[in-house]
Every structure is written in C-alpha cells, then in structure tokens.
Design a protein that fits this description.
By secondary structure, this protein is an alpha/beta fold. 38% of the residues lie in helices and 12% in strands. It has twelve helices and ten strands.
Length: 329
C-alpha cells in the first residue's frame, strides 16, 4: 500500500468516539462496572504516580497485577495492603534486567491480558546507559520495546491482549531525530524527552500492525498534565516558571489532573470494549485523540508520530539496537 495512503488512513482513525468519559474521569470511574477477575496485567513502574493508581484500580476490579520495579523494596512499601499484586525487579535501562524478568515470567507459563508500559523518566540531566544510549530514549522506548518483544509468547498465547504505552503531549517537542537519535551532538532535555515519547507512539503504531492478526492491539496514551514523581529531575524554580506549581509547591495550573484522573486513560485503553477491533491510535482524556492542529496547539497527535513509514523504520532500528524482535505477520 502506498505510504501516503497509509498515513491518511491512520489520520482518519484519530477522531473521538464519544466514550462517555472525559478529562476529569478517574481510573476507578472507568472500571466501576467491570469485572476483571481472572485477567493478568503487567504494569511497569506500577508502584509510583500514575502506575500506582493504575495498579490500585485494576486490583479493585479483580485483576491480578504484576508490578515491575527498579526499586522492589520501595514498591513493596507502596503496595502494602493491596491483594492480588506481585512485584518483580526490572531496570528498563538495563537490557540484561529486562531479559531476566521476561525469562522468569515466561517460565511461569501464564498469559498476559494487559501490558501497560507506564514507567518512564522525564527531563533528566544528560545520562548515558548501556552502550552510550541517551537515557530517556533508552528507558522510555528501548526498554519497553525489548520487554514487549520478549514477552510476546505470553501476549499471543490466548489472543485478545492489549499493550498500552504511556506517551505524552510532550511528543510535540520533537520528532525522531534520525541524524542524531542519541543526542551525541548536544543534549537538550525536553527535545530528548519529546523524541522518546514520539518513539512510544510510533512503537504502538507498528506493534498494532504486527499483532492485530493475532488479536493483540496496541495503544498509546497521553495522561494529561499531572504532578507526580516524574518531575523529580526538574528544579522547583523551573516548574514555577512554567506555571505548574506556585511558590509553596502547590499545583497552580487548573488544567492539571490528579493522579487518579491521570491514570484513567491508560486503564480505559487497556480495558474498554469501545476499542474492540481498533488499535494503533493515540488516546487522551479517555477517548481517541484528534490530530494536532496546524496552528501549533499543544493537544492531539502530530502527523510524524503516527507515520507508518517512520514507525517501521524505528522498529527496525530498535530491533537492531536491542537484538529483540517479533515475527512480521
């Protein structure tokens, strides 16, 4: 199929479907009438911020949740009192750690109904991991890419699984910088974050294409503006200047969501029957998102983030970098 036609087809999928929820809905609202008993979810970073609220909501609806944690002791404390949760160690910036977890999980011979790729870092100082990879691209994209590929047998074993990747409106900051993906020619923290989130969306586009025939559908989501530990690398003065918080550290932007509201869209994408037969789309405010306006408004999805040609190109590069892949249908 002609690439231009493919891109136009993806653009036509990016329109609201009227979910009945909105930007103030919570994860608990989304799951209020659902029974997830017998379903298994893996939530990366499911012990902090949006991940914690996602885990809580899924467990309350009856799901069994495997939480991956870079800091298992911290996760144990955060999740104490919740039943139906197990914790395992994964450092997404370390592919040997990702491989070890995948091997342990596959050895348990269980199927995955929901894989929620929630963990991530934002606007950190320049950091190199692995063979010199820029840390945000490595953690937010490459680690999750490898994890998904390695867990493929458990996703494909029954069909009907969903993979939900936490993206961001921050993808507006940068497309994929094909000439300098690792920011070796000069590091800028927000463009690096933006590129990692563009990669997250492109990953979902190509993953859905590869998995649809087996019933595996992929979605990317923007949770909204929320104050969580994700901002831990940002100075207080910077967040005040951006209008996110006031001098006392309280949330100052009225459009910001609570963590419970921020977790709603990824939970909706992982469970909603309204998305049956759909996939590869970018969602926000518990609905499929629209295309980003040409006037530069900071909402919707940029065309470069759902370009199928770029999605395939990124997949091939990521497979080479991580030495992981799944078969093409």
């Amino acid at each position: 199929m002609n690439v231009m036609i493919q891109e136009e087809n993806f653009k036509t999928l990016q329109h609201k479907i009227g979910s009945g929820f909105d930007h103030r809905s919570t994860a608990e609202d989304v799951l209020r009438d659902m029974d997830l008993t017998g379903q298994l979810a893996i939530v990366t970073g499911g012990y902090s911020g949006l991940g914690l609220e996602t885990t809580r909501a899924l467990v309350q609806a009856g799901a069994h949740v495997v939480v991956t944690a870079r800091r298992p002791a911290v996760a144990q404390e955060a999740l104490s009192g919740l039943t139906g949760v197990e914790i395992d160690e994964v450092d997404l910036a370390d592919l040997s750690s990702v491989r070890a977890f995948a091997s342990r999980f596959l050895a348990s011979d269980r199927s995955i109904d929901m894989l929620i790729l929630n963990a991530g870092i934002m606007a950190c100082p320049e950091t190199r991991v692995g063979p010199g990879w820029e840390a945000q691209f490595a953690t937010n994209h490459l680690g999750h890419f490898a994890l998904t590929n390695l867990l493929w047998p458990a996703l494909a074993s029954q069909g009907g699984a969903r993979v939900v990747s936490l993206a961001s409106a921050g993808h507006h900051f940068s497309p994929i910088r094909w000439d300098d993906i690792q920011f070796e020619q000069g590091y800028e923290k927000f463009p690096a974050y933006g590129q990692s989130k563009t990669a997250t969306i492109l990953f979902s586009v190509e993953l859905d294409r590869r998995g649809a025939e087996q019933g595996i559908r992929a979605f990317s989501v923007h949770p909204g503006g929320i104050m969580t530990p994700l901002q831990r690398h940002m100075p207080k003065e910077e967040m005040i200047a951006l209008g996110w918080i006031d001098e006392s550290g309280e949330v100052a932007n009225p459009a910001f969501k609570t963590p419970e509201q921020g977790a709603a869209t990824q939970v909706w994408a992982a469970t909603s029957p309204q998305l049956q037969g759909k996939g590869g789309v970018y969602c926000e405010d518990c609905d499929i998102s629209v295309m980003a306006p040409e006037d530069g408004g900071f909402y919707g999805v940029k065309p470069y983030a759902i370009d199928p040609e770029q999605a395939t190109r990124l997949w091939k590069l990521s497979a080479e970098l991580t030495d992981t892949d799944i078969p093409t249908s």
